[in-house]
Amino acid sequence: MALSDYTVQSEVDTRSGFGAGILALGRENPNVVALCADLVGSLKLDDFIKEFPERFVQCGIAEANMIGIAAGMTIGGKIPFATSFANFVTGRVYDQIRQSVAYSGKNVKIAASHAGLTLGEDGATHQILEDIGMMQMLPGMTVINPCDYNQTKAATIAAGRMDGPVYLRFGRPKWPNFTPADQQFEIGKAVVMNEGADVTVFATGHLVWKALQAARELENHGISVELINIHTIKPLDSAAVLKSVAKTGCAVSCEEHNYIGGLGSAIATLLSRELPAPLEQVAVNDSFGESGTPDQLLAKYGLDTQDVAAAVRKALARKK
Amino acid sequence: MASIEELERMATQVRRDIVRMVHAVNSGHPGGSLGCTEFFVALYFEIMKHDPKFSMDGVGQDLFFLSNGHISPVFYSVLARSGYFDISELATFRKLNSRLQGHPTTHEHLPGIRVASGSLGQGMSVAIGAALSKKLNKDSALVFSLHGDGELQEGQIWESMLFAPHHKVDNLICTVDYNGQQIDGPTEKVLSLGDLEAKARAFGWDVMVIADGNNMAQVIDGLNEAKSRTGHGKPVFVIMKTAMGAGVDFMMGSHKWHGVAPNDEQLKVALGQLVEEKDY
After folding, report:
1. Where are the alpha helices (DSSP H) in A104-194?
2. Which residues of A touch B59 (CB under 8 A)?
3. Catalytic-residue membership of A63
4. Where in chain A is the domain with CATH 3.40.50.920?
5. Topology annotation, domain B4-273
6. B136 CB within 8 Å of a chain A CB
7. Catalytic: which of A28, A63, A186, A217?
8. Predicted interface score ipTM higher than 0.90
9. pLDDT for A10-65, tens place per residue?
10. B216-228 and B4-25 helices cross at what angle (nearest 10)?
11. Could you name the CATH architecture of A11-177?
12. Domain A191-319 - what CATH class?
């Protein structure tokens, strides 16, 4: 596919993609269960609960207990999705995830909504920008950050089908839905959205859309962008990253996350070891967020289309 | 069914394993392990329906979760002595490349362990999850867990304490090793649990007390009583009073032997008080 092939089918939140995905998964596998800590509506679990009331566990506002219960439910073959806002199912319960889930090798899926700045007006207490870092540091944890409704639905189903702990991150706001509804989603496999020659843009989550917009603009200015959607940050598709940067010679990473510990860090580690090349990061510059609309926040914190374009020009300049 | 005398002999053997294991690596936690020896022997040699041919899912089996993972010596000894793995492996405790890590883990695939524990406060949640899974699977077997009294200071425990009665998790028996000691001193001084019995009851549990958790007959009777209380809409909470270090006079009743191993001379004295002849 090429840049012009991606059209906006609708504006819909990625968390609704999760809701649709877990419903489909629930129909496919009777062992799939959902847990939530008093945020059923926000996590779009209503349809799942209506259809499978006995397979839903309301934990109340007690996330640590929820993670432990999810770990315990895997014993006996259940596939639990422990759900809440991204802040409350990562930082708040890091040790529970570390010991009872990751170290214990439990088949728990941590499904996290309202990740990043774009949850908006609730402000920094809820806008976690460190979750990808925390989760990818855990040995054995798969970390997935899909870009739109269709991809979140597909990622949810894929996460439920794989054996092992998964951190699945998605968001709150209505967002362009532009990837194919019938996409084949393979965990750990990067998606080349556009082949290009001058620079590689790696993007994850909501910022894939911003990167796509930027790539279109840059193309009009004669810059050929290879755009790669890294929906799985861990395990990183190292082969795809290296193959592309070997061709283009420079790279930009884009994520709704602190520049420390996220996608950019993962790519930087890989490139510095295997293929040193200029890398610019579009990410939050080691700060907390604040209240505002999603658009205002993305602009203020340097995560907008123009920021991606500027990072591309910087990367290109460093290549010469 | 084993006689009380046979179970007591096994408890003596387990106590010998415990002091020898911690002595061999000059580390580990003998105090709580010795205090809970009767409980473990009762569970694995009398109370639980379990199969040493271990499967993680344990379908149709009673399951046990050790939440206060630092008392791993007693857990490992009883698992080995009931056939989960060879007793000679007890000699690898806390050594490099061992399946018998300082705190229990599934990571090295040691038969009998179903979750890692050591960071405190997590085991009750895991036990509840396993109990819910059994209910969904229409599996009528029970889930047991053990917790330290100091461990009850962790906030997650009280999230679990709220949850289990609310969701009527009545296939669950959580026991507290109530020895009144923790690393920094008596629990009463460090951070008092207050009236634990009243607290657990107020949270909605079916609460019972084993007055002497180092008396084998009392432990057997207490756990059988606990089993009879399952299936009636409430989780069962057992406050089991024990003496830390029970069975070795100089270790008894003091928090000083929480995480300290005996030296050569002390080991000799301890083994002299624990006479049994089937050492690993």
Report:
1. 131-136, 149-161
2. 76
3. yes
4. 191-319
5. Rossmann fold (3.40.50)
6. yes
7. A63
8. yes
9. 999 999 999 999 999 999 999 999 999 999 999 999 999 999 999 999 999 999 99
10. 110
11. 3-Layer(aba) Sandwich (3.40)
12. alpha beta
